[in-house]
């Protein structure tokens, strides 16, 4: 069965795959200290083989790499501990989702949160998705207040 393309040209399945690979790349950046370009190079081949949205993958990884300190500072008010003490998978996903919420306004906040939860459920700890959900719900309510209020009305 073939999927009908969306009007905006975005393939949601390819985007999901891009987010999964971005999680792995950001996780690798956190553990090994490699920069975004090296992380992208490590995962780009796998991206191409999975028919993912390579440009989106690169934007997420580069975005987190270049805005990490600002993203961490923006997330901190919604966390119950220092960002460096958050589980590494959850931390990587929070950084990616924070980047999307703040810099990819073309992606609805509900999509960002839903994708983050699905990804953390797949790769993170057993209850990691509940923590990520709480943090992102509060962050989205502040960072994208008009969009969230319109959705709740």
From TrEMBL:
KW Transcription (keyword) present: yes
Domain NusB/RsmB/TIM44 intervals: 17-140
UniProt keyword Transcription regulation, yes or no: yes
Keywords, alphabetical: RNA-binding, Transcription, Transcription antitermination, Transcription regulation
Annotated signal peptide: none
Pfam families named among the record's database cross-references: NusB
InterPro entries in alphabetical order: NusB-like_sf, NusB_fam, NusB_RsmB_TIM44
Domain of life: Bacteria
Family (UniProt): Belongs to the NusB family.
Cross-referenced HAMAP family: NusB
NCBIfam families, per the entry: nusB (TIGR01951)
Main function: Involved in transcription antitermination. Required for transcription of ribosomal RNA (rRNA) genes. Binds specifically to the boxA antiterminator sequence of the ribosomal RNA (rrn) operons.
Name under which the protein is recorded: Transcription antitermination protein NusB
Organism: Luteimonas kalidii
Gene name of the record: nusB
């Amino acid at each position: 069965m073939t999927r009908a393309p969306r009007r905006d040209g975005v393939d949601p399945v390819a985007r999901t795959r891009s987010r999964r690979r971005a999680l792995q790349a950001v996780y690798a950046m956190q553990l090994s200290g490699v920069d975004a370009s090296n992380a992208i190079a490590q995962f780009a081949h796998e991206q191409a083989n999975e028919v993912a949205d390579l440009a989106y993958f690169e934007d997420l990884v580069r975005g987190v790499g270049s805005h990490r300190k600002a993203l961490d500072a923006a997330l901190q008010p919604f966390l119950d501990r220092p960002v460096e003490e958050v589980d590494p998978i959850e931390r990587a996903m929070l950084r990616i989702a924070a980047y999307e919420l703040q810099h990819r306004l073309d992606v609805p906040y509900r999509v960002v949160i839903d994708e983050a939860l699905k990804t953390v459920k797949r790769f993170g700890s057993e209850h990691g998705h509940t923590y990520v959900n709480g943090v992102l719900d509060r962050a989205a309510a502040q960072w994208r207040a008009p969009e969230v209020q319109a959705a709740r009305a």
